[in-house]
Structures are given as C-alpha cells and as structure tokens.
Design a protein that fits this description.
The chain is mainly β. The protein is built from two helices and 52 strands. It has a ten-stranded mixed β-sheet with strand order 13-12-14-21-16-17-18-19-20-15, with no helix packed on it. The protein has a six-stranded antiparallel β-sheet with strand order 1-2-52-46-50-49, with no helix packed on it. A hairpin with a 5-residue loop joins β9 (89-93) and β10 (99-103). The radius of gyration is 35 Å and the shape is elongated. The two termini are 25 Å apart.
Length: 650
C-alpha cells in the first residue's frame, strides 16, 4: 500500500502538503506555540537559532535578543529540542543551556533561565537566634536552588543590643561567597525615645531598614550601610568565611519571638558549580496524580534526572535528583503513561533494563494540634522489565492512551499486565504487519507525531517514507500473546519530515532543508522546487479465496469509488496481470455510460463493474492504482467460481 489512508470506512488517498516557510540551510529542530495571554506566537528552532515565525515567509531571529545574561552572545545547539510553557514563559530544553522566552518588561526576548532575573531564591533557614540565645531553634524551610547561589535566611532581632557588644552576632546557615553582595531587610518595633513609660504603647510603630554592601572590604569583614541615608552610617558587618553577621542596633521584633530580619546572600554549592541545567537535553511535564505541574529533565551523558518544584520551572531543589539505574547506561527519553506514571528510557546495556517507571506521592507531617506543618513530594523509581530499547526520543508518542515507541525491531507499545499485584509493564509489538519493512531503516533519527487518531513515523530516507498506524483500526491476531494489539498500517511516501507539530488543529512538519510544511485539502505536494502529484496504490495479499485445493475462474469485479483521479483496478495471478480503468468517477456524463460494462456517475459514490474471465488459478492478488487527483475507494467485490480439484499448485 502506498499513499492511501482509512477514513470513514473508505480507502482514501492522502492529502498533499505545501511549503509555507523556509529557513534555508538550517534543519528544523523544534516548532513551538507560545501564548501568555497577551500575545500568541509560533517559535521555530532551526539550526543554531530561534526564530519568531508569522506562519508565512517572515522569520525574526530572537536568539540574541536578551538584554541580560549570556544568551545575547550564545547560539543554540543544532539538534532536536522541546519546550514547556509555565507562568507566562516558554522554557526551552535540549538546545543547549536552559533558556526561557517571554516578556520581562521591555518586549519579548530569550534569556538564560539562571540569569533571567526571576529565578526563585529559596529561604533555606528561618527563626535564627543571635549568639546570646543558648538554644537556637532555627528551622529548615526550602532546599537550595541549583539555578542560583542566592539564598535567604531569616533572623530573630534583639532589642537589648548596644553598639559596644562586638561579639553579638547571628550565624547564617553557610559561609558567604567572598566579594558577593549581601542585603539585609529589617522590620522592627520602634518606640519613640521621648515617650514616657505610660506613652510607650501609644508610640509603638513598625519601621523598616534596608542595609547593603558599600563595596569596601577589610579582611573578611564587609560593611553594611543604610541605603536611604546620604551619609555612610555604619550599621553592621559580615564575616564572609564563617557566615557571621553583626547588626549594630536594637531591632525588636514587632511580634515577640518572630523572625523579622531577612538576609539575602550568596553561597555557591557543588550542585550550582556542576551546572546541571546547562546540560539537560530532554524533559517531560509530570507530577503527583497526573498533575503535570513539575518539569522533569535528563542530564546529557548520564543516568541523572532532576526535577523542579511544584509549578515553578525556575526552582530545582538540590535534593530533587534521581540516579536512574546503572551509571553505565544513560537516560535517552521520557514519556508520560496514562496511569500517572513516567517512563524513563535508557540506552542498551547488559547490566541494566531499558526502561524504568516513576510515580509520586506526598509525605505529610502534622503538628501536635493536627495542623499540616510540612508536605514533601517524593518520586521513587521502579525497575521495568527487559524488553525493547527505544531507538530515539523522537519516536515516542501517545496514541489514544497507548504509549508507542520505535526500536530497532519495529514499533512497540508499553502495556500494563492484568496482574494487579505486580503491576508489571511490558513492551508489545504493534507493527507486526510491517515489521520487516521497519527493520530495514535506521530509526534512531526517525520522527513521530500523532494527529487525527493516527501515529505518524517518518524514517528520514530518500523516498520520504512515513509509516502510519491508525488507532481506530486495531485487531488481536490469532496465536499471539493475549492483548497483543496490532494496528492497521499505511505507508506514505514523499514526506521528508524530521519532526511533526500540530498547530491550530493542522498537521505540520519540518525538514532537514529548513522547510516548514502543512497538510491541506489538495492532492499535490508543493514546495519551492516545484509540484508533485500524489500517486497511490494498494494491493491485497496473496489470496486463495477460501481454498487452495481447487482452481478458480474470476468472473466479475465491482468497485465503488469517488474522486477525480484516474483510478485503475485489477488483479494478478501466476499467469496474468491486468489493470482496468474505472469509469464514471467524475460528474455525470453520457460518455461515462457503458451498456456492456455498467457504470453510473453522480454526486455520490459511483459503482463500476467489469466482466472478467481469468481461468485456472489457485492464488490471486487484487490491485488499485490512483493517478493525480482525489480518490476514495468504498467497496470492492470479486465474483468467481470454483473449478475442479488441483493436481498441483497454480
């Protein structure tokens, strides 16, 4: 079969495509839709650049538009990428460093996430008491963010301090990076010194003070000054190597015992130095109970997975890491399964399995009064079974709830067993009808997409071959493993796709030549190089028409069809191959009526019958071939009679 698909019970020629844009000499690596409520745009990753595309011929390069950070001088990697929208930003993964596209106030631009100005700064410790308190009851709140060295500590002020007490200090939860900025925000209770004892309650007010570095350093001590005063008044100091901070002033909390001093400082961790986020190459949205509110990413060339905090793709806690399986086998792809499970695919390795499965749950802690005090998310990983190794992340897609992927042996589905106790998943073949054809291709760079209930797999060969599985046409062949579903497969050609995308309800694809093409209602493929008619053909398998013990005689064939193309149908036996032009496919015309070979035309399906006398055959194939134009085949009948019993195979 070639260039036919199934539609509404008929065999229909595929629609053509037209080139709607081109970035000459650049492979299309990603096509993304972005909508922040203010603007709706299409972004294209082509070659080493990111473009804003108007849907036609206009491409605006936005790779170096950043007004902050290194993105303004950095190109992208020339490989497939993916993107995820969250909180008005489009986060781009796999094109090099972790980047985001959005509007930061001065127009839409691309920025490195770690330098975008919106990275979440965690509050790592709270309720830190000063050195005069014997039992410090500080508590941990947030994990360190791998995207920034900045962190926040909260201190409990002391109203009894006098400037002569030089040993009076607070101990931060980490040393401070030498030369980095430190900011102190203080909310404190102020009582007018002129107030009498009886008036003190009346003269209470909340004041704030912001202290920051003045840029001068003496050893490990850096001064802090009041940023509102014109004069540099000494208010405190920081000992960088020990993380001790001194504040020379009485800062009584407005509410007794509550932390009222916020210190923002930098402490570079090993996780920040390793810069995992600049090495991620693929990702997936995932979360607890199928929420999809976190971003899971794979670090290239490793078995390391990292994931964000809930609904914040700029916050990757330093404990949000999972080493999946053996370190000898790298993660290659993610895929979300319909039962709230994330599949993690790995390279082939004799010591490891090719897939792991991950799920999530919350661990909750309550206080003595029964109130929720802390809720922590965990995402344990479970080893899968030995089976097929995913050929490439571009081949994974979800077809009507069934996860499909390509391996070197064909297309497989991930399936949950009926054993509820074990809940084990296996890979089952879904391409048995075309397995031998698929094995002739290198599927590592194949591209998959799902549209209108079909799974498209473009293999990237010179013919532009694309295999299509129709999710509405499934069967359970005899003598196979229980529930081993097989799809009806169709083979298309002249589709040079290296990736697929669905935009505004239409199927697009990109090519290695930089073309962006869309399928339309025509029956020609149109590019800048020219136009090509779509020719389609179909033939049955070898049929014995019920028995191979008797010879047969073919008497008549009838086809019900519609369209504007030249349609031929016929048969092939051991002795003869015959193709006959179908008449009466177009509008009604007396020229299309034949009283020897009855046909009738109108604005509905047309029936055409022809008498045939092919004698003495045991096996036969039936064929259809369509030239330029539309074509739909609704029904085919063959009339034959059995002859005498065979003396040999014919």
């Amino acid at each position: 079969m070639r260039n036919f698909l199934s539609k509404n019970g008929a065999l229909v020629k595929r629609n053509g495509w037209r080139e709607v844009g081109r970035i000459e000499g650049s492979r299309i690596n990603g096509i993304f839709q972005f909508d922040d409520g203010e603007v709706s745009e299409t972004l294209v990753h082509a070659g080493t650049e990111l473009y804003r595309w108007d849907g036609a011929e206009t491409f605006v390069n936005v790779t170096r538009t950043s007004t902050i950070g290194k993105a303004e001088v950095m190109g992208l990697l020339d490989r497939k990428s993916c993107a995820f929208q969250n909180n008005g930003r489009l986060f781009i993964v796999g094109a090099g460093p972790y980047m985001a596209y959005g509007n930061w106030g001065d127009g839409y631009e691309l920025r490195l996430v770690r330098e975008c100005g919106e990275v979440y700064i965690p509050t790592t410790s709270i309720n830190i008491n000063d050195s005069t308190v014997e039992n410090d009851v500080r508590a941990t709140l947030d994990d360190v963010n791998m995207l920034t060295p900045k962190r926040i500590n909260k201190l409990v002020g002391n109203g009894d301090f006098t400037q002569t007490e030089k040993d009076f200090y607070w101990k931060l939860d980490a040393p401070v990076d030498l030369g980095s900025d430190v900011t102190v925000y203080i909310e404190y209770l102020y009582i007018s010194p002129d107030a009498t004892e009886n008036e003190s309650e009346v003269n209470r007010e909340l004041k704030t003070r912001v202290l920051h570095n003045n840029g001068e350093m003496i050893g490990n001590v850096q001064y802090l000054v009041d940023d509102e005063d014109e004069e540099e008044i000494l208010h405190g100091a920081v000992r960088y190597d020990t993380g001790e901070i001194m504040l020379w002033g009485a800062y009584t909390p407005y509410m007794p015992g509550r932390d009222n001093i916020t210190v923002t400082f930098e402490h570079t961790t090993e996780a920040y130095k390793k810069d995992y986020l600049s090495k991620v190459f693929t990702g997936a949205r995932f979360g607890i109970d199928g929420s999809g509110d976190r971003l899971f990413l794979a670090v290239e060339g490793s078995n390391l997975e990292i994931y964000s905090e809930m609904n914040d793709f700029t916050y990757f806690g330093d404990r949000n890491t999972v080493f999946v399986g053996s370190e000898k086998s790298n993660i290659t792809a993610f895929a979300k399964i319909d039962d709230d499970t994330l599949a993690i695919f790995k390279e082939a390795d004799s010591e490891d399995v090719p897939v792991y499965y991950q799920s999530g749950y919350y661990d909750t802690i309550y206080d003595d009064e029964g109130n929720l005090s802390k809720m922590t998310a965990y995402f344990p990983v479970k080893q899968g079974s030995h089976g097929e190794v995913c050929a490439g992340r571009g081949t994974i897609a979800n077809l009507q709830g069934y996860l499909l992927l390509a391996s070197k042996n064909g297309v497989y589905g991930v399936e949950l067993t009926d054993n509820v106790a074990t809940a084990q998943r296996y890979t089952r073949e879904r391409s048995g009808h075309i397995a031998s054809a698929l094995r002739a291709h290198d599927l590592s760079l194949a591209a998959a997409g799902v549209f209108d209930g079909r799974y498209y797999l473009a293999v990237g060969d010179d013919a532009g071959t694309c295999y299509v599985a129709d999710g509405r046409l499934m069967c359970y062949p005899e003598n196979t493993v229980e529930k081993n579903i097989q799809y009806e497969w169709f083979i298309l050609d002249h589709i040079p796709a290296c990736l697929f995308a669905v935009l505004d309800g239409r199927l697009y694809f990109g090519t290695v030549k930089g073309q962006i093409c869309v399928f339309d209602e025509e029956y020609t493929d149109r590019s800048a190089e020219g136009e090509q008619d779509i020719e389609a053909e179909w033939h049955s398998g070898v049929l014995d028409l019920g028995s191979d013990e008797k010879g047969k005689t073919l008497l008549k064939m009838t086809v019900s069809a519609q369209g504007t193309s030249d349609l031929f149908f016929g048969f092939q036996t051991r002795n003869r191959k015959s193709m006959i032009r179908v008449k009466g496919q177009g509008g009604f015309s007396f020229d299309d009526l034949s009283f020897g070979e009855l046909s009738f035309s109108g604005n509905f399906t047309n029936s055409y019958s022809v008498k045939v006398k092919e004698k003495d055959f045991s096996y036969i194939k039936f064929r259809f071939r369509s030239g330029a134009g539309a074509c739909a085949i609704y029904k085919f009948k063959a009339f034959f009679r059995n002859n005498t019993r065979n003396k040999g195979v014919r």
